[in-house]
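Deliverable D5.2: sample structural annotation.
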Amino acid sequence: MTNYITLLKDNDLKATIQRTSILQSIDKAGHINVDDIYEDVKKQYPTLSLATIYKNIIVMQENNVIVEVPMNGEKSKYELKKEEHMHLICENCGYIMDTEITSKTKETLIIENFQLQSSQINLFGLCQKCQ
């Protein structure tokens, strides 16, 4: 289990109950949108507003605690920051599968006159269930 307090402090953020609750919700789901985070968190903290969720997500994203995963035609999902990987995103059901970036993949990303610092690769198609 991830230690959310350490994760926040290591990224120069205060470990508030709102932030740890949001991180717990994201960690539990793997990939989750803001509305679903709000529904999950408000079960435990009914007075927490959607605006507070948005504000904290932006701050945690800016401080590299979480990563936004853009979705085609729907709200972005969020995940905890982890080792570089690719997302295989089902355009039918929205399922997201993480997959490793291999050395062969990295070789194809070498671009002349450009030094790549980080990447987010999202590939859209149909998962095995939806094919």
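Annotation notes: The CA atoms of residues 78 and 129 lie 23 Å apart. The two ends are 33 Å apart (CA to CA).
The annotation will be released with the project's public dataset once the embargo ends.
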